[in-house]
Amino acid sequence: SRGLLQRLPRVVASQGGMSATVPGHWSNIPDQEVLMLQDPLLEISPTLQFEVGVLTDGEDLAAHAQARTAAIAGQLAAIKEVQSARVLGKPEVQGPHRVRTTIRVEALGRVFHQVHLYRRSGGLVLPALLRLPVKHKDAYLDVMAQIQRSMAYRKSSNM
After folding, report:
1. What is the gyration radius of the CA atoms in the chain, in angstroms?
2. Which residues of 94-114 are buried (b: 16+ CB within 10 A; e: fewer)?
3. CB-based contact 103:114 (threshold 8 Å)
4. Which residue in 93, 84, 48 sits closest to 66, CA to CA?
5. pTM
6. 103-141: pLDDT as tens digits
7. Largest CA distance in the chain
8. Cα–Cα–Cα angle for 62, 52, 60, nearest 5°?
9. Over the stretch 27-79, which tens digit does the pLDDT of each residue have?
10. Rounded distance, CA 132 to CA 137, Å?
């Protein structure tokens, strides 16, 4: 339930310069390049996957999110195991530097939402993909908001 998720301890997970605050029971999926996490209570893997991209000067975050989400929905729809993948609604602006988009995916007899959390950080855009069974989406709204607010990227220098 949403209340229970709110009370769970939080940890800062980080990998490859990316970091975010997530529920403490989520486990890291080992990957050198990106931060990927699994919620053991959810059957879709990975639960959360981070990336880093670049925004061109003056590019609108919502427009960027909409175009990227549409492209990903197209890529998903081309996968043999996926029956359908469609973007739900317009990008939801969560704040001056945060936008959320959702793709409804039907694959292998299951329906889930792939929620894209975008955060602008200077000239970078930090997108995270969160895969949630539809029945759990509302319970994870506060978790999603916290992850999105906490997402950060620091390029490590090996000099």
Report:
1. 15
2. beebbbbbbbebebeeeebbb
3. yes
4. 93
5. 0.90
6. 999 998 899 999 999 999 988 999 999 999 999 888 899
7. 49
8. 20
9. 999 887 889 999 998 988 899 999 899 888 788 999 999 999 999 999 999 99
10. 6
